[in-house]
User: Fold these one by one.
Assistant:
Number 1:
Amino acid sequence: MTDDVRSPLHDEHVALGAALTSFAGWQMPLRYTSDIAEHTAVRTAAGLFDLSHMGELEVTGPQAAAALDGALVGNLSALAPGRARYTMIVAEDGGVIDDLVVYRLADERFVVVANASNVAVVRDALVDRIARFDATLDDASLRTALVAVQGPRAEAIVTSLTDEADQREAVSALKYYTATDATVAGVEALVARTGYTGEDGFELFVDADQAPALWRALLAAGEPHGLVPAGLSARDSLRLEAGMPLYGNELDRTTTPHDAGLDRVVKLDKVDDEGRPLPFVGRAALEARADAEPTRTLVGLEGLGRRAARHGYPVLASADPGAAVVGTVTSGAPSPTLGHPVAMAYVDPASAEPGTELAVDVRGRAEPVRVVALPFYRRPR
């Protein structure tokens, strides 16, 4: 027996024969058929993902925007209703507590989406940080299911189930990182054009008890388009090809946004009503880090052999015996789309120039790799 939380879609996964795994305290589908088949379906047609393990924290009130400005590194008060932003919550020393997507649904209503493993710590930190503001936090995580349709056929599938013409047009018109309310297959949903695969797609937030009906409707509507259910394994290889960081791999408490090449999300130029620099948790540390020379750089590694580098493997200056260690792999796997291994790694700045040839110690054997710019894959426009 397991104490893991079950997704509202657990019975659907069992009926589809999914291999289930324990992930961040949840029982979630690892795969349904094969990792490569599910990965390829998302790149060429569409995949259906259960993301109900993610956390949804609603922040509301007259000072909700100001509260989030002080709690997070981003400038959330500048976000228009109906838009979303990728941001982070950091500790006083600038270390990343979690990377987040924040949706502004109305002037005084936001939803902060946190990674499953960090929901409790993000919730507790936000409760503490917004306490002096006229704002409240409601943890809606267990009441909310999140379903994603990702791939080039995603728009056709989701709009085919959106009955109202005006809503169908609104869903189709969504730009990246925007959201709208719509009724999809008879289920009221917040439909967002967001995702973690490098493809076009949508994430649908719905009441947990409505998720099974929506899941089955999406599977049926997607079948003629080549849609398949996809698990955590395909999700990981897709996000790796797209160069997207994973908390616990590329991001953690020892890493600042600047280390990960994500200094763009840190808004040091945000100011208060009187034009003064706006204080937020971690500001002093991030200002200092922005002005400092980096000690490590996140890079892409293209495998030149057949064996894939994996998380934690040492990066070497060369394939020569006794070569110095110049970094550590954070994520790595064979790339089904590109046909060769890929990895992300933190390396010494002197080893970070694209084109630099290095090696990775793969279980005692030096495998050649080449530094390349991220992402490894960009979807056709």
Number 2:
Amino acid sequence: MTQTETDRTGINRWKTLDKDLGRISRLELATQYVARPLIAPGLGLAFIVLVAVLAAVFSGGSPDRLIVIAAAAFGAYMALNIGANDVANNMGPAVGANALSMGAAIAIAAVFETAGALIAGGDVVNTISGGIVAPESLADSSVFIWAMMSALIAAALWINLATWLGAPVSTTHSVVGGVMGAGIVAAGLMAVNWPMMGRIAASWIISPVLGGVIAALFLALIKARIEYAEDKIGAARRWVPVLIAIMAGAFAAYLALKGLSKVVRVSMPMALGIGGVVGGLVWAGSVPMVRRQSEGLENRKKSLKKLFAVPLVVSAALLSFAHGANDVANAVGPLAAIVHAVQDGGSASRVVIPLWVMAIGAAGLSFGLMLFGPKLIRMVGGEITKLNPMRAYCVALSAALTVIVASWLGLPVSSTHIAVGAIFGVGFYREWHAERRARMLGLQKGKAVAVEERRRRKLVRRSHFLTIIAAWVVTVPATALLAGGVFFLFRLIAG
């Protein structure tokens, strides 16, 4: 073989090797791409298994420890789904307004959700385990255990489906529907606390409408007093500290009711007093802060966004704390009731959440948010209506005030309904305001905008509106039917 032939052979050999290596590289990339969607479910499954192992340790030598282990696994699954679906309502507006990156939002939410669950969580558990179905109708501990297990499974499956479909649903109503459905199959229609269910049904309308109205009113205030003022920066220096103080006072009152009630009894007037003092102090501190931030800003609308960015981030963190305090019970309420029934032989008269059960809920909320939350955060933050820091702050402020008012009135409202309702309220107000301005400008210029053109200028995506409303309406009946079916299967298996 000549030298030329040898070189040519070597060259050909290297070309073949390059092609083979290229195929292998493409195969590796394809494998990584295919495997990537499986990473989050795999980590979620590992979390559920870890929780089951921990439940086996903490349940001790109980003869019914397998029930506790199974309930803990389903409770972890439920907590993951709540983190994936519900937490988006708190962080979505801040992300949609570009005040937070997705990574920062997830990190802040994880910390504050966990803190809220561990510090102030657990007050709603007795309502979930004993307020929906009459406790005496489930006096048999085995019937009570399987009813709670059915409710937990049904609610978790429904929230998982809703997250997959991209619909932010109420986790509170999911659990309530599950308990109701299992209770009906276990003890009949008369076992259900129908007045309570009537109040919950009323909250489907009250909470989103109230959230939307309050958010729209604050947006109208910001537009009238700040955006359209001749001296926008001067107006912002007067009004932004007031808006920050209202948010701080509202959360101080809420946290006084939630957290201090575990140490000392706090009445609503006392909580409002605490909120007023905190709001006044925060206002005094906000005045110089806003003045410093506004120095050198141009007198235009775009400059105002900077003044709302920090308050929006703080409000998102506080909303996450409040959500962790309130909605952790949706994940561990049925689980705590099962543990109570297995270990103490009681039903639902009074349930105390063990610390390890609360830790499962707190960790599950954060873990579910990190693994599965970005999809709904993007949808809530940017796909319903366009948000900027001012609009997003109105949403957060509305959510805080509505939750406090509802807690005071004893209404079982959903934080999901309130936050999403506030986003729709902001969007529909923008539509109304834009059309009103278009008509006024048309009259001034003597050229009216055509009706067809005004109809085309929609600032709220109607497809999301209809999908979300449908999911809200279906949640309680869907989880009730699903829980009833699961309980019926349990009864067949048990013989």
